[in-house]
Amino acid sequence: IVSIIERGCGNRLTALYTDHQVFTHLRFEGTGTATSEILDILGLGRSRGELELLHGLKTGAMIQGAAELGCVAAGAEGPQREKAVDYARHIGLAFQIRDDILDVTADQQILGKTVGSDQRDGKITFVDLLGLEACETLVAQETAKAKAAVADLSGCEFLLNLAERLADRRK
Questions:
Q1: How far is CA 73 from CA 5, 13, 15, 19, 24, in A?
Q2: Average pLDDT by consecutive 10-residue portion of the chain (171 residues)?
Q3: Backbone phi and psi for residue 154, each to the nearest 5 degrees, phi listed first
Q4: Burial class (CB in 10 A: 0-12, 13-18, 19+), 170
Q5: CA 13, chain centre distance (Å)
Q6: pTM for this structure?
Q7: Distance separating alpha carbons of residues 113 and 31, to the nearest angstrom
């Protein structure tokens, strides 16, 4: 990571080198991502809680890591970082649930990938556990939580719009 940051940003982001919390978080999340792949292969995800854990270690971890690195780069303090991570956690869950919905309902040409691959691969999804209607409701709830997490931050318009775009995506 340090090598990539040096090539891409030079000395501009030296705070990244000294921010032990972020590197610890990224190391943990990186391990979590690998762990989640193993758990996925072993069939974890038979309940809503297990699915939330599984996807929190994959999609959620990547989005949270990016949010936290952005905060470090911007010099954000603890409370702002907590709000960004909370936003990212909710966006990650909403994104994954929307992905599960699209795997069942999307037009393959619009989606750009094979529809129905989760079922074909024997994966349990949020749609399998909750149904389409409940999943749509959950996407809306998680999106609202994400937006609420950052609503009082100055310059949050981009994040609010991003949350809506991700919730409404069709591919």
A1: 11, 6, 7, 10, 16
A2: 38 38 41 54 70 80 88 89 94 94 89 83 89 97 98 93 94 84
A3: -70, 145
A4: exposed
A5: 23
A6: 0.75
A7: 28
